[in-house]
From TrEMBL:
Superkingdom per UniProt: Bacteria
Residue range from the parent sequence: 145 to 832 of 832
Region Disordered, annotated ranges: 455-493
Comp. bias (Polar residues): 455-466
Protein name (database record): Phosphatase
């Protein structure tokens, strides 16, 4: 590689102090602008958002709870891609879930029908469903240095909701487990849900990832079958392992639809036929297998059908991040499965990268080329700082019908039940793998491990895991308000370097870039990275690398770390930090002793102390999570999302007024999740 990268010595901003204000705070010299709020109209003729619970038609408005997000540059007019355009583009934005307490005029309604059955009203639930999914929205800047705004009536604007038709692609397409009332041949499905993190695919498409989809389904605990006869016992085990329970998150399956042929509500009841009161002919037991995938969307073509990429496995997908794309080398795509004691994965394409595919005429066909054939691997971290990628391939390493833990019937079965295959292979259970990010200069992969209340010194139940080298802490974090968080209370960021720095490798070395902690915590066993008041954090989640070039011609990879709730909310709202990364192995190994759930020791591999190379850049408003990060190519405009401000309140007890409060810190209205854009007042690169 010919790119010469020189890291500036310091991050050129003053760290933002921890605070609990109802404002997005950034360093002096920077400006925050609110760009795209929950409920904002994206088509002509849609009424302005009243924000009093009377609004409808979320299929033509911004959805709720913005999360992962990518910027796709556009040429000066039309829908031609131009990744280098820093003033006009499309933002593809996930709407992970909803805050029902602010969505309706009053509290969400449940009524009891004549048969004594609790029912949600159709109109409320339709709003809730349509507020999920993805936005694609045109954004433009007035001149090179003016204000950003979204274009409310752009022909390129689009919502993908849980009702949007999608196509399956890859090895599980057409498998019996995907056959539903909606698709008798198992080749199509409806929509996407709980879209958490994301990825910008190297050929110009957006990838959105289905995380906590399991919670949208209800399934009677007495159900002993799935819809297809094959592999019933294991598929039922799988539903439980993936978290499909007897009650759904919002009760959508309880709607008695006005149109009895509509299945958009009853589909969330994944029980046997008789339980589907709203449609006695339907059987939705397979619906949960149609979620848990990475979904590719062509952002430049609003009429295109999203494709679910089954070769990348089924899990609580957090995000998907491409490794370095090198001509002639098979690319890798790194993914976390966000559950306590779940795994980190990578997919290696069967097809070596061709640079001509960076600007293809048919992006989804290019996705077929790289994402439908290849090998999914799961990570095993060894105590000596090495690791292996274990292949999830039917017929290899015991992943077959004779497996004593779970029998596997086919490659489709392995992919759809990736968690079970990871168990069978002995993958390393991690402290909730969230986002993945790749250093564009050296290819090292970083993954946030947000926290784990089920980590112990010595595990004493099947849901717990004992500390190990890759997850070495279990302790009590005591809040200033008297509450406590336990286990790995504050999370950490693990990073790995592939053997030969190649995406194709099946072995790696690893260490921990930073351990989250209060700066005041025990330096020997908790605050292992020596965080201080300028960079202490808890519960890392959003993670992304940029590679901006400053005015002096210096290009530097910058690591953006965002936080989600977690243990530190007694002191500060959630935040975003910017770091200048080191390298795997640049630190030390230390023996760490647990102080919660039994006393044990682990060898922690601690990266070089971040010190002044990691600083707090932003603090969000009350009760929010900061998540989603993308940038224009020049690094001069960065976009981030504020998710669930005021999440502890509701319509009757409003606990944040953001973004209305952004100017003064106060307000009267209901809070709204929103995308904000951050620019430097001198027009320079953010962070440098
Ligand atoms: Fe949606 Fe794992 O955060
Ligand atoms: Ca997340
Ligand atoms: Ca999270
Ligand atoms: Ca959250």
């Amino acid at each position: 590689r010919s790119t010469v990268v020189v890291s500036p010595a310091t991050l050129a901003f003053a760290a933002v102090a921890k605070n609990k204000n109802d404002i997005v705070t950034v360093p002096s010299g920077y400006t925050v602008s609110v760009l795209y709020r929950a409920g904002d109209p994206i088509a002509s003729g849609v009424a302005a958002f009243a924000n009093d619970g009377t609004d409808t038609n979320y299929a033509q408005r911004a959805g709720d709870n913005h999360d992962g997000m990518s910027y796709f540059g556009l040429a000066a007019s039309g829908n031609t891609p131009d990744a280098s355009n820093n003033t006009r583009g499309l933002l593809a934005i996930n709407h992970e879930y909803i805050n029902p307490g602010y969505m309706h005029v009053g509290a969400p309604t449940t009524t009891t029908d004549a048969n004594g059955v609790a029912r949600r009203p159709e109109a409320e639930v339709l709003k809730e469903i349509e507020a999920h999914g993805v936005s694609v929205v045109e954004v433009a800047r007035a001149g090179n240095t003016g204000a950003w705004s979204y274009v409310p009536n752009s022909a390129l604007n689009r919502r993908v909701t849980p009702n949007t038709p999608v196509a399956f692609s890859g090895p599980v397409k057409g498998d019996a487990m995907l056959r539903t009332v909606y698709s008798k041949d198992g080749t199509t499905g409806r929509g996407t849900i709980n879209n958490c993190a994301n990825g910008a695919l190297p050929w110009g498409d957006y990838a959105t990832c289905e995380e906590n989809w399991a919670g949208y389904f209800a399934r009677a605990s007495t159900d002993a079958s799935v819809r297809t006869a094959t592999g019933n016992a294991k598929q039922v085990t799988s539903l439980s392992r993936y978290g499909v329970g007897t009650n759904s998150r919002y009760g959508w399956q309880t709607v008695a639809a006005t149109d009895p042929t509509s299945t958009i509500f009853s589909r969330w009841n994944a029980s046997a036929v008789a339980a589907n009161a709203a449609d006695g002919t339907a059987d939705f037991r397979n619906e949960p297998f149609t979620f848990g995938w990475v979904v590719e969307i062509d952002p430049y073509n609003p009429a295109s059908t999203p494709r679910k990429r089954t070769a990348l496995g089924r899990m609580a997908h957090e995000g998907v991040m491409a490794g370095r794309m090198v001509a002639g080398v098979k690319p890798a795509f790194y993914m976390g499965d966000d559950g306590r004691n779940e795994y980190i994965y990578k997919f290696v394409s069967a097809t070596a990268w061709s640079t001509a595919d960076a600007t293809p005429t048919d992006r989804l066909a290019t996705g077929d080329k790289y994402l439908d054939t290849g090998t999914l691997y799961v990570a095993k971290f060894n105590a000596d700082g090495t690791g292996q990628w274990l292949p999830l391939v039917f017929g290899q390493n015991g992943l077959d019908a004779n497996n004593t833990r779970y029998p596997f019937a086919s490659q489709a079965d392995v992919l759809a039940n990736a968690r079970l295959a990871g168990d069978a292979l002995g993958a390393t259970p991690m402290d909730r793998p969230e986002w993945t990010a790749v250093n564009p200069v050296n290819g090292e992969m970083y993954c946030t491990l947000t926290n784990n209340s089920n980590r112990r010194g010595v595990a004493s139940s099947s849901s717990q895991r004992s500390i190990d080298a890759a997850n070495p802490r279990s302790y009590v974090d005591t809040r200033t308000d008297g509450g406590t968080s336990t286990g790995n209370a504050n999370g950490h960021v693990v990073r790995l370097r592939e053997a030969n720095d190649s995406t194709e490798s099946t072995s790696f070395t690893w260490d921990v870039y930073a351990f989250g902690a209060r700066s005041t915590a025990d330096a020997n066993n908790v605050n292992l990275s020596g965080l201080d008041d300028t960079n202490d954090f808890s519960s890392p989640d959003g993670l992304w690398f940029g590679l901006p070039t400053n005015a002096g011609g210096q290009a530097s990879p910058l690591l953006f770390v965002q936080t989600d709730d977690g243990a530190y909310t007694d002191v500060t709202n959630c935040m975003m930090l910017i770091g200048m990364p080191g390298r795997v192995g640049d630190g030390t190994t230390r023996t760490v002793t647990s102080s919660f759930g039994g006393t044990a020791t682990a060898t922690a591999r601690v990266g070089a102390a971040p010190g002044a190379k990691l600083k707090r850049f932003l603090v969000g408003p009350k009760e929010c999570e900061i998540t989603g990060i993308t940038s224009t190519a020049d690094g001069r405009s960065i976009f981030i999302n504020v998710q669930h401000p005021g999440e502890d309140g509701d319509y009757a007890n409003i606990t944040s007024h953001w973004p209305q409060s952004q100017a003064t810190g106060t307000g009267t209205g209901r809070p709204r999740a929103a995308t904000v854009v951050i620019t430097k007042n001198d027009g320079g690169v953010v962070g440098l």
